[in-house]
Amino acid sequence: MGKHQVAKPENICVFLDRDGVLNRPVVRDGRPYPPTRTEDVELYEDVLAGCQRLKAAGFLLVVLSNQPDVGRRTQSRAAVDAINQKIADALPQIDHFEICFHAGEEFGEPCDCRKPKPGMVFHAAQLMRINLAGSFMIGDRWRDINCAQAAGCRAIFIDHQYAERLPQTPDVTVRTFSEAVTAVLSINRDNPCPGLSTEV
């Protein structure tokens, strides 16, 4: 490769929100919150098999998670890291975690990485040579859908019937992680990307 040539992004990824997609959130007044201890982490029953299906099809798997309680001093980074490690140990198919610890603009700590901003997606894409146009995001919050669309990915929404609205329309709406995986593989089958399996 010549010194002036830039390597083209060649990897296709499924970006995964954490709480509400991989593990059950704590729901209060119709709104989801992350678990605060490793003992409270409970993966959905279909997540392991779903991640295995995605890996078998050739996708990278990258977790993107807002954890603003660290910036707000109501949770420790060590606790968040421990929860992520427990999930990583249970789901060895995951290739990478991107976590935003900033408190958010409303708490005086703006950033470019907190979803719905696409900074975490762009950082992972640069790090792992990801083709965003061929990639997907699976999320359960409006922030995930807006982030996916801002980054140029296709958005798969798991609808847990939270008390919040979606400002933008996802590409597909499903009820479970297994259904989300099937949607990803079906879209890839109909619009295949080079190097990926088209089996559902």
Number of helices: 6
CATH top level is Alpha Beta
What fold name stands as the CATH topology? Rossmann fold
Query: What is the H/E order?
Result: EEEHEHHEHEHEEH
- Write down the overall geometry: globular
Instruction: Specify the biggest β-sheet.
Output: 6 strands, parallel
Helix content: 25-40%
Q: Work out the count of structural domains.
A: 1
Q: Using the CA coordinates, give the radius of gyration.
A: 16 Å
Number of strands: 8
Q: Which helices and strands, and how do they pair?
A:
Layout: E1 13-17, E2 26-28, E3 31-33, H1 47-56, E4 60-66, H2 68-71, H3 77-90, E5 96-100, H4 119-128, E6 136-139, H5 142-151, E7 154-158, E8 172-174, H6 177-190
Parallel strand pairs: 1-4, 1-6, 4-5, 6-7, 7-8
Antiparallel strand pairs: 2-3
Helix pairs in contact: 1-6
Compact summary:
By secondary structure, the protein is an alpha/beta fold. It contains 6 helices and 8 strands.
What does this structure look like?
- The protein is of the alpha/beta class.
- It has one domain: Rossmann fold (3-Layer(aba) Sandwich), CATH 3.40.50.1000.
- It has helices at residues 47-56, 68-71, 77-90, 119-128, 142-151, 177-190, and strands at residues 13-17, 26-28, 31-33, 60-66, 96-100, 136-139, 154-158, 172-174.
- Strand 6, helix 5 (142-151) and strand 7 (154-158) form a beta-alpha-beta unit.
- The N and C termini lie far apart (36 Å).
Structural features:
alpha/beta, Rossmann fold, six-stranded parallel beta sheet, 200 residues, 6 helices, two-stranded antiparallel ribbon, single chain
